[in-house]
């Protein structure tokens, strides 16, 4: 049982600069929660922010009532129905009766907290929780509403992977700051929106020029000359990364992938370059034992330029014994669905298109509508989904993990291994995924996890019956 208060706070992110944030419990990232597989956790969220919020546990196998549907709001304690900031359009305009009584003034003063119950009957992995309010997810995450949630289990504990101080959850997110130290969210800046000739300047999503890891800009972390387990999450709204680990002199260290969004792989996969789209997680072991004491290993984003090329660095401080290992077989319980198991094949396009706001992003030609059933799937059915994209779209399914069957008519890429909940579609690419709709009945979502694309309409309902 946890209690989390969502409130405004001021943090020193850049040295000597005060940055106002929206937070879970006053910190960015929010408090990291650690759970055991199969042990249910209830988190009571109290909203003391000036706007309604929604909490979603990304990657969680969660009953629909606690999954954070975008209109299942936690109303703010200080909110009395008057317009505060960006609350006036969006969620209000789309109320379909699922919003916990948005138009009932009594609801606004009583529904200030909400219990989210997570059974966590799922494989050990790194999940994250973040805001999911309809039309305003991107600015809410940007302002700080994101945190980590680790699920552990006995099978994983028994493997002997690097642990304790040698296991590092790393939430990577870019942000931009304005002259006063506030987080600048340019898509909400009316002077930019109305600049003549600029129809929609942030169609590709909002990028920052400062890279934060666990809320700190370009941190340098001291390590032993030993193996470390990096639990990587790309919590950026729109930024893609291609990570490499570069030692002094330019030597590249192996990034040994042991897990993906939904837990351990069957066997490790070695990368020199690891692509990471928004919301993806990678579980990676890196071995610093060959680095001279005092040496540095920089984590570099090959897709960045200038300051955004650097992500963070490790300084190898001392020799130390290392009893960890990376077994050749990591897990034997990965589902192995075959095409022949599928009772249905569905096609979805992820493209630019017309929305209520004029121009935005749509799935199958239609912008998100909470009242429309886009997909109705039967509990227990295996389905193949064919996804096709115009530009980069990291596509995420709630509730279920899936396997990548193909990309561009070819076998999946090495980093597609294991069980995913987010697949990074590349420009012009078609990919096939396979999953079993397992767990709970109810109304879920699938959407692009470029957070701006999501807010601009690239989301759809997944009803499991
Ligand atoms: Cu991480 Cu529907 O989201
Ligand atoms: Cu999710
Ligand atoms: Cu997208």
Automatic annotation (TrEMBL):
Q: Which residues form the Plastocyanin-like domain?
A: 11-70, 360-462
Q: Which InterPro entries match?
A: Cu-oxidase-like_N (IPR011707), Cu-oxidase_C (IPR011706), Cu-oxidase_fam (IPR045087), Cu_oxidase_Cu_BS (IPR002355), Cupredoxin (IPR008972)
Q: Name one Pfam family in it.
A: Cu-oxidase_2
Any idea which UniProt keywords this protein has? Answer: Metal-binding, Oxidoreductase
Asked if Transmembrane is a keyword of the record, the answer is: no
Q: Which superkingdom, per the lineage?
A: Bacteria
Gene Ontology terms for molecular function: copper ion binding; oxidoreductase activity
Q: Which family does it belong to?
A: Belongs to the multicopper oxidase family.
Name of the protein described by the UniProt record: Multicopper oxidase domain-containing protein
């Amino acid at each position: 049982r946890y209690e989390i208060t969502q409130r405004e706070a001021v943090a020193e992110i850049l040295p000597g600069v005060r940055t106002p944030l929206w937070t879970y419990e006053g910190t960015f990232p929010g408090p990291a929660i650690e759970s055991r597989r199969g042990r249910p956790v209830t988190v009571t969220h109290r909203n003391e922010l000036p706007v309604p919020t929604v909490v979603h546990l990304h990657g969680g196998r969660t009953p629909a009532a606690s999954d954070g549907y975008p209109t299942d709001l936690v109303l703010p304690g200080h909110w009395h129905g008057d317009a505060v900031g960006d609350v006036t359009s969006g969620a209000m305009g789309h109320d379909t009766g699922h919003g916990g009584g948005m138009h009932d003034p009594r609801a606004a003063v009583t529904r200030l907290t909400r219990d989210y119950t997570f059974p966590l009957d799922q494989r050990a992995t790194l999940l994250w929780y973040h805001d999911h309010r309809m039309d305003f997810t991107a600015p809410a995450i940007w302002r700080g509403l994101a945190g980590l949630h680790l699920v552990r289990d006995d099978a994983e504990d028994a493997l002997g992977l690097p642990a304790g101080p040698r296991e590092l959850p790393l939430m990577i997110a870019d942000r931009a700051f304005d002259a006063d130290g506030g987080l600048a969210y340019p898509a909400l800046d009316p002077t930019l929106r109305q600049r003549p000739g600029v129809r929609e300047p942030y169609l590709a999503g909002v990028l920052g020029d400062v890279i934060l890891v666990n809320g700190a800009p370009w941190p340098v972390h001291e390590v032993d000359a030993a193996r470390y387990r990096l639990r990587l999450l790309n919590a950026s709204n729109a930024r893609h990364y291609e990570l490499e680990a570069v030692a002094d002199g330019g030597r590249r260290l192996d990034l040994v992938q042991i897990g993906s969004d939904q837990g351990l792989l069957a066997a490790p996969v070695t990368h020199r370059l690891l692509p990471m789209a928004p919301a993806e997680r990678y579980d990676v072991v890196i071995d610093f034992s060959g680095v001279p004491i005092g040496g540095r290993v920089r984590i570099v984003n090959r897709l960045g330029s200038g300051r955004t090329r650097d992500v963070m660095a490790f300084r190898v401080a001392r020799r130390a014994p290392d009893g960890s290992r990376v077994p050749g077989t990591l897990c034997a319980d990965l589902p192995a669905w075959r095409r022949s198991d599928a009772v249905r094949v569905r096609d979805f396009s992820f493209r630019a298109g017309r929305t209520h706001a004029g121009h935005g992003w749509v799935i199958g030609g239609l912008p998100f509508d909470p009242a429309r059933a886009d997909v109705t799937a039967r509990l227990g059915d295996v389905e193949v989904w064919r996804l096709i994209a115009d530009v980069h779209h990291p596509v995420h399914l709630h509730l279920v993990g899936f396997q990548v069957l193909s990309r561009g008519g070819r076998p999946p890429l090495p980093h597609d291994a294991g069980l995913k909940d987010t697949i990074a579609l590349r420009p012009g690419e078609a990919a096939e995924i396979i999953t079993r709709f397992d767990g709970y009945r109810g109304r879920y979502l699938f959407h692009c996890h470029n957070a701006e694309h999501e807010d601009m309409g690239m989301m759809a309902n997944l009803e499991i019956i």
